[in-house]
Amino acid sequence: MNIPPEILEFACKRVEKKAGCTLPFRLRGITINRGLIKATMEVLNDCPGKTLPQNCRNDLRARTPDGLDRRIREGVIMKVLVFGGTGFIGKNLCSELLSAGYKACIVSRNPKKAKSLASGAEVVEWNSSAGSLPVELLEGVSLIINLAGESIGNRRWTRSVKEEILYSRVRTTQAIVNAIKQKRDAPKVLINASAIGFYGPRGNEEITESTPAGRDFLAKVCRVWEEEAFKAHTVGIRVVAVRIGVVIGGEGAIARMKTPFRFYIGGPLGTGAQWISWIHIKDLTRLIRFVAENENINGPVNATAPEPVRMKELCKVLGQVMERPSWLPVPDFLLKVVLGEMSDMLLNSQRVLPKKILKEGFEFWYPAPEAALRDVICRHNGV
Ligand SMILES: NC(=O)c1ccc[n+]([C@@H]2O[C@H](COP(=O)([O-])OP(=O)(O)OC[C@H]3O[C@@H](n4cnc5c(N)ncnc54)[C@H](OP(=O)(O)O)[C@@H]3O)[C@@H](O)[C@H]2O)c1
User: Fold this and answer.
1) Which own/partner pairs from 68-71 qualify as long-range (CB within 8 Å, at least 24 positions apart)?
2) Could you list the residue range(s) of the whole structural domain that residue 143 is in?
């Protein structure tokens, strides 16, 4: 099993900081293996009173052979069905789950693509437009993660595209919930994606999970989508709607914003005063796993970093990281002409706080945008 380098780097830095010493070279070595993790844990044990945060310790322990065995014995290792596992978030999530020892099965309209993306995962072909989901698919499954739905950022929102954005999500979720209802020993948890679009435009208001839904198109999509998922409550399973912010990673909106910066024509979209609530892809996949493994988390959860920023600030940081100026704003009217109603996604101000997940003890690796952007830009071939 390969240990993701991020976790090793994180562990090493934490150990050094907490223990107030530099790790011996053999621990900082280039070999990424279980031995390094075990040795890191040993260093920790030699430093009583100087500990890593609990969730990081758990993470490390889970990656040692002993840790894995314990988790299997305790029934924590789960078979997970992932819908939308071939998408931007799904691919990253499946690799997080597989490296943590989960058994993953991707349910996809495109099994060839799914197989090529996630080695180690089982793949099953299914299309929500074909109707119901075979109940047998849920055999032995204790966790379902649903990310599937027509992309909201790829095509102009014509009437038919809007219908597909809404109904692709509703159809898939309804099929999952109906199958859960028919299964005698139903899975324990359904984690359904949603988005901070749930809240609609909110200016400077601080948004938490108890803020009511907005009224625009995206708010309606998220509200209806979540309502379908929460119907699984009736059979007594835990349902969590993860309201995802703008994801900083190798794909998605922020990755697209890199292009004008690369050619020295980058700048904020709209006035730049709108709040952007973002999350690093690694924190998002860790957060989804944290939700899966913490039985007391229920209902909606905001998946955004604790430091939302204004668009102007985000672009300034992006420019600094890419060593390019952030000077050429794209005015609202132009975005509206080019993108139509889809421009709402970039122009709406949403200052979302991850109140619930912080209260449960989740630790963000990337709480501030600079480190998040730096990581993603360095990882994806710089500028
Ligand atoms: N990325 C973000 O910044 C962000 C922010 C907030 C919320 N979200 C939500 O989180 C979920 C995952 O996001 P993502 O960025 O990974 O999305 P994505 O890359 O567009 O992937 C979505 C997946 O859904 C399935 N899908 C696509 N069109 C479909 C259709 N018409 N009917 C049924 N299934 C369809 C596809 O899987 P198969 O082809 O394998 O079936 C696809 O891989 C989405 O629902 C999205 O709305 C994303």
Assistant:
1) 68/101, 71/101
2) 78-253+279-308+351-377
